């Protein structure tokens, strides 16, 4: 007797076994999250899934998301993957604008500059790459860290002596280094190495020109930009260490951010929030 079997055909994705594989970001109306090879866009008010972004030619897992914040530039989403690629999605028509591929390993962090004409990416391959989004190509690579890049910040800094505005990239790494890179010369201009074994992330208080560094122990290191150089000893210093804040947990922060009014700092760790 011939046994009959039911025949199944693929219809649609109804859920995922795995959890979030990347950071979660938001704007005024939507929540963006990475799940395996997919990026889910959810309406934050109705809690309904608006769109699932998926490239059929990409089998790698999503590791990092970054959303453009310029009003003068089209709305784009940068998606980093385990294989080192970065896909740029146009959120107006949900099409892939370009594929940036120069990293050799997992993408760990992505930042846009102010006008979103450039993108800065960090990776487990220890390098930082600055990309020209208009030309869709890498401009230059920054090397100097000895372990995975954990966080990046783009920062404009005004020298009070010359009144000149400089553009910097701030980077942290599992090698315990905090580095400042001058984008005009594509080179490191200051390194602070007397830190913990690992530095995981940063929070920037722009008004007071203060940077907080989250480490893999109970310390949050406080740095401040030097706006006026008065002595020879500070000639080559962009920031200086002004103190340490002790947190309750020894677990490294997975995220640090200031509230909009800068009155509070939120630290999220693997254990709890503080």
TrEMBL record:
Matches recorded under Gene3D superfamilies: YVTN repeat-like/Quinoprotein amine dehydrogenase
Gene Ontology molecular functions: snoRNA binding
WD repeats: 100-141, 142-191
Key words, A-Z: Repeat, WD repeat
GO biological process, one term: maturation of SSU-rRNA
Keyword Repeat: yes
Protein name per UniProt: Uncharacterized protein
GO cellular component annotations of the record: Pwp2p-containing subcomplex of 90S preribosome; small-subunit processome
Transmembrane stretches, start-end: none
Alphabetized SMART domains for the sequence: WD40 (SM00320)
Organism (species): Ichthyophthirius multifiliis
Highest taxon listed in the record's lineage: Eukaryota
Keyword Repeat among record annotations: yes
